[in-house]
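Morning run. Coffee first, then this:
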Amino acid sequence: METPHHWPSLCYKIERLKPVQTWRQIQWHPPPHGKVKINTDGSYIKESGKASIGGNNRDEEGNCIMAFAMWIDCDSHNMAEARATEFGGKWCNQFGFTNFVLELDSNIIVIMVNQDGNKNMKLKMVVERITSLVQYANATVHHCFREDNQVTDALAKTASISGTNLI
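And here it is:
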């Protein structure tokens, strides 16, 4: 590699590079009046092949209505995220919450559900079921940052590590 710098000098500069740290305060935002919000997350550990999902459902005042954590059988992180979203949406429908917000940290799944045109054949059926749930229930699907989703992230990882289901 040709460089205008002397190699030891270049190595010295590279070793001292530091990432720029930015800080942002994250807080949970309640759903609009009359709605509930369900945050979901999926976890997949490729090395062990273990996967799990987690989520929590809260009202507009932040009171927990339901939480879940369970291991599932799947082969990718995106499938775990989609299955978590599907489970959360189905739970809301089954228990009479037909006006809710689904919030997840996988922007890929959010885009697939909100924009028709999913090209991923492995996820197609799950995404179609989520889309159907959303349309039937007058629900909306939103992306949130991973930092917003710490509770659900911990629930999903707990099930994956312990192999225990909690509902």
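The first helix runs from residue 7 to 15. Good start to the day.
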